[in-house]
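Recall that a protein's primary structure is simply its ordered list of amino acids. Everything else, from secondary elements to tertiary packing, is in principle encoded there. The following example makes that idea concrete.
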Amino acid sequence: MLHKLTLIPLLFCLLSAQSFAEITQQELTQLQEKANQGNSEDEFRLAQTYLNEPSIKNEEEAFYWFSQAAEQGHQQAQLQTADMLVKGQGTQKDINAAALWYTQLAIEGNHQAAFNLGELYEQETESFDALDQAELWYRLASSQLPQAQQAYERVLQAQFNQRRSQQVSSFKALDEQYSEQATTQLTNSSSMTTSQTTQPAFQASQQSKTSHNLIIGLAIVITLLLGITGFLVAKLRKNNQTKTEDINREQIKLKDIQLKQQKHQIATLYKELKKRQSSKSNHNLQLACAVFGYKISAIPEQKKIKIRYKQLSKIYHPDGQGSDEEMKRLNAALKTILQNVTKT
């Protein structure tokens, strides 16, 4: 009895270790192959693996696959993508992009996304302006309304122009500040030198015995002037460095807007390509069904399709009433229909 009781914890430990075993390379490869086929659920699973599996943890890969699944409408992936954008986890922090995902989910009835969006507006008050809000809502409407698509592109252009205008203004302000400080510095240096050199000259003419002391005093004054000049130059350089950093930040934001425009254009082209491919595929299936006498909405199972094929072969075969061309058309139609049945 005692031995049995001892074996129970041991068995539990073995089962626990097995259940928490690290993913093998073969399992990871299988996950990757499935995800590469474009299924959103497989993409989501692969992203979770990269995020949570210690042995292969890769936040950049996790974000990539979460965003791929999100683009296909996977709600959990959309929420995770937004969360990672807010934290800057596995990608660059982007509050506006996160707000877009949260808003889309909130409209669809996701309460967690609505709560997260509320927190975002409360905590990131400086991250949103009118153009950002316009961009967000136009982007949501652009998938259904052509005028929203045009408005979205117009807002992106307005954001680009705004950033560029701010950049130009920063350059002008920097130039004006530099010129003003340089002029002030030269004026102060000249006035101080004149006042100090005039006084020792006057005193030297009145009291020749103190000329040595005056020379020493003049040397001290010149040293002070040099120190003040050095301080002003250092301060000016520091201000210039700060302005340069601000300008660099503006340039980065400008490039982000350009990148966003390019990504949107690529996404639009990709959707159009998929739409055309789908349309072409449906057209081929319609023709194939017409050859077999089927409707697309009522294609039977494979067994019945093959029976129908044998019946039609007797008609279309060159040895019967048909020709080689008709037989080729029948074979192509069979292949198209069977491919569609396999997919479904």
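Residues 211-292 form the longest helix (82 residues). The two ends are 56 Å apart (CA to CA).
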